[in-house]
Fold this sequence. Notes:
Layout: H1 4-18, E1 23-26, H2 28-34, E2 43-46, H3 50-56, E3 60-64, E4 69-74, E5 77-83, E6 85-86, E7 100-101, H4 105-110, E8 120-121, E9 127-128, H5 133-138, E10 141-142, H6 148-154, H7 157-169, E11 172-173, H8 175-184, H9 193-205, H10 209-219, H11 249-260, H12 264-273, H13 278-299, H14 308-326, H15 328-340, H16 352-368, H17 381-387, H18 395-409, H19 417-431
Parallel strand pairs: 2-5, 10-11
Antiparallel strand pairs: 1-2, 1-8, 3-4, 4-5, 6-7, 8-9
Helix pairs in contact: 6-8, 7-9, 7-10, 11-13, 11-15, 12-13, 13-14, 13-15, 14-15, 14-16, 15-16, 18-19
The chain binds adenosine-5'-triphosphate (ATP) and magnesium ion.
Amino acid sequence: MKGIMEQGAYTVLTKLQKQGYEAYLVGGCVRDKQLHRPVKDYDIATSAKPEQVLDLFERTIPTGLQHGTVTVVLGAHHYEVTTFRKEAAYEQFRRPAEVQFIDSLHEDLQRRDFTMNAMALDQHGNLIDPFGGLADMEHGLLRCVGDASERFTEDALRMLRCIRFSAEYGLEVEAATWKALCEHSLLLKHIAMERVRMELERMIAGADPVKALGLLVSSGILRETKQALKLAQLNPQHMPAAIHLLLESDARWTYLFLSIGLNAAEIEADMRVLTFSVDQIKRVYKAAAAFYMLREGLLLNQDEYVQEPALEKKLEHLWKLGALTYGKAAWLTIYNILAVEPRWMESHGITVEAGSIVLSRGKEWLDALIVDSLKQLQVGGKELLAHMNNKSPGPWVTEVLNHLLQETALGRLPNETCLLIAEAEQFVKYHNL
Length: 433
Ligand code: ATP
Ligand code: MG
């Protein structure tokens, strides 16, 4: 039985055909249907020109007229209807801004990247598969349409798509396709970092990131980005083996970067180069920084807490301080990584004992934090100033507030206004602020 979204797609096909145009389902939906995978969206290719599509349907959006794409809206669903086209002249190893409309489905399929993405279905459900996409999928192979060198030279992004599809669908890259990919990897320098990031994000969020990372490493393609990435230092020895078990993108990226051994500043720099959002950069940075704080804290005066109770106390202290500095979310990220690979910390400078203590107590420690941000303190900067006669505002205020937060969070000082102010007075006097 067809779902509503699929029925809608066939309605669009039929309507186009009744007007004398050719129309087919194409691309990802055909591939995913053959594989009995859920279809995300139905794309349609037609001999009708964009203006004709606009005229024919009641609700349309002129999504990309210069590329021949009109979005047709039926009920709650959107269908991208694209005029048969070929991509005449590729410029600078990227897909061209201009396309040429054509009359033949076959030529339209020919410009597509991989055989499994170059199949079509007509309105009766007949498969049109001129390049043997179905057989390739059955043999577990990912293969370029036609000459792989030409395909990758036309559009270098296809090399990253190749690695993504191979990992996502568990396919081996066919030999000539792989050879061409390795030979042309240096063409990746023509691709904007943003597009590289989008492909990498999908690989990392995907079903088998380790496979994708393995292919990235063995092709050497990460060394060929337009702007250099520290991520390119990845090698087979430090693969984040349990990455597919992590649910969140932040945790996956943190785990990946930490596995390579990058410090927080290097991670931040790579993520900036890759044009990640400021918020995601901050979150991953904080998780990494919290991890390194824990590691450095443990390395300091190591001999003082070889005994379990002392080690536990020390860890609790560092964990809570880390939560104040970098936020609870940072530790949850580290905690989740540890939970999927308990021995992970061992190869990153933290003993197995410490790791297992963190794993058994870490959540409790976070819950036990009565306060974790200045906002929750029962005293603010203004009140502090009001109680400190003759003192003018200055950096000392922040210093005092941070001290109060730390003492309260660690359970050494109740979060009560008068006690907080008394402690503040002591602190100012003692430190000569
Ligand atoms: P998914 O959406 O799951 O990534 P998809 O196959 O639908 O898979 P899209 O990027 O949505 O991928 O593209 C739709 C179709 O357009 C592809 O199946 C392919 O036929 C064609 N296509 C997309 N990008 C390229 C490209 N860079 N070079 C050649 N053909 C492409
Ligand atoms: Mg798609």
